[in-house]
Design a protein that fits this description.
This protein has 18 helices and 2 strands. The protein is mostly helical. The model has no long low-confidence stretch (mean pLDDT about 80).
Length: about 425
């Protein structure tokens, strides 16, 4: 049994990239907005507007990747292209991370941030599409969950180091700006170093023939992929289900700190709670990977979606700091599992030689979900501004009401996933 879960050298190399890039994810969701706030404030930007600008930058990066992701994914299915494109995107992301510290201009900072985030997100399209090539169908769930698990715990190491520099840099004679610049460099180096094993050991084994005009062929192939997705109902319905349930997952991840702040909770406590989420996610993701070897991964995904629905209901009634800590723990228990199992489930139902193009479509769903979910919660929050409702003796604010819309997304996602899994099982009978 132990050998069954032991990773091969190639699988370990693939997992290590998750360890590297996750450091950038944690930096973006914690320290980076605080640093941008300082830059914008020192430049005289209205405090209310800086949040809008930060949100716009994230949205622009999301839209750009949603547009280029499927094209890059389709192009990467050509022989010899996947690793090259992967390295180009990693290079863009790492360079962008380092360059964040070279400017004190908030507008230039945002432009560099957008480029770095595009590189980061685009690299994940190629990275995810490598999964069917680096392991077998039977081991896919375990390897995918190992990636997320080690990514969560690995990201904590550089984050804690950066946190010490930022919070206690004065003890070492460092000002805040220098501490942040060092944090950018540490994160970039961590990301780059953990990319090396994958670039050394990965070789593209599943591909389609390279034509005379690869870019033009990619556009034609992309159109063909859309048609195939519609014709293969199990894939089409799954991607639709993924859009809805991952919508809720990503919105909770992206807006957790903002939600807690809006409710007036302590900022330091929120950051520490986010760190707790990373730590809890590590063993829980591995646990679900082990469970997937004994139980149907579709059933495990259904459990995760149901649990996320309950977590969201709990978040609706959240009014205190200790409840936010409990929320952070619960999210950590299922966050890695649902993302990892979603990734490996698609790898099982699509041809490996076309994994790039299908993961490109999945990326559209993920990026679209991230954009749509945050916009939806923001819109509900705005139209209910100032509204307070008393439920079971609790005084709920408009932010609580806005979060309740995520429950509907999870329910729709669950029903569609059940349909997709039924179609997939019927296809294999």
């Amino acid at each position: 049994m132990k050998e069954k879960f032991k990773l091969t050298k190639l699988e370990k190399s693939w997992v290590l990239y998750d360890v590297g890039n996750s450091a950038f994810t944690l930096l973006v969701s914690t320290l980076l907005p605080i640093y941008f706030n300082a830059l914008a404030t020192s430049a005289g930007v209205n405090e209310d507007l800086y949040l809008s600008y930060w949100g716009y930058a994230g949205s622009i990066a999301t839209i750009l990747v949603a547009l280029i992701g499927p094209i890059c994914g389709t192009l990467s299915d050509r022989k010899g292209y996947k690793k090259m494109l992967f390295l180009l995107c990693v290079g863009l992301g790492v360079a962008g991370c380092v360059c964040l510290g070279v400017t004190g201009n908030w507008l230039v900072f945002l432009a560099i941030f957008i480029l770095g985030k595009v590189g980061f997100n685009a690299s994940l399209v190629f990275y995810d599409s490598m999964l069917p090539e680096i392991t077998t169908t039977e081991r896919m769930d375990n390897v995918s969950t190992q990636g997320y698990a080690w990514g969560y715990i690995g990201s904590v190491v550089p984050f804690v180091l950066c946190l010490v520099l930022v919070l206690a840099g004065g003890s070492f004679g460092l000002d805040q700006t220098t501490a942040m610049v060092l944090s950018f460099i540490i994160t970039a180096l961590w990301w780059a170093v953990f990319t090396v094993p994958l670039t050394r050991h990965y070789k593209q084994t599943a591909y389609v023939a390279r034509g005379e005009r690869p870019l033009g062929d990619s556009f034609r192939q992309l159109a063909s992929t859309f048609r195939k997705a519609k014709e293969q109902k199990h894939v089409f319905v799954y991607l639709l289900a993924f859009f809805f349930f991952i919508n809720g997952v990503y919105t909770i991840i992206d807006m957790a700190t903002a939600y807690g702040t809006d409710l007036g909770l302590d900022t330091t406590g929120l950051l520490l709670a986010l760190l707790l989420t990373q730590i809890v996610a590590f063993p829980c993701a591995i646990l679900f990977g082990r469970l997937s070897a004994k139980h149907d991964s579709a059933k495990l995904m259904k459990i995760c979606i149901v649990c996320y629905t309950c977590i969201t209901l709990f978040a609706v009634f959240l009014v205190s700091q200790w409840q936010f800590w409990l929320l952070a723990t619960l999210v950590g228990m299922f966050q890695g599992a649902i993302q990892a199992l979603s990734r490996s489930y698609l790898g099982k139902i699509v041809p490996s030689e076309q994994s790039g193009e299908f993961y490109g479509l999945m990326d559209i769903c993920g990026k679209g979900a991230s954009f749509f979910g945050m916009a939806l919660v923001g819109f509900i929050n705005q139209i209910t501004a100032g509204l307070e409702v008393n439920v079971f003796g609790l005084q709920l604010q408009n932010a609580n009401i806005a979060v309740s819309v995520l429950v509907v997304l999870f329910i729709i996602g669950y029903l569609l996933f059940c349909k997709a899994d039924k179609l997939n099982k019927a296809r294999n009978v």
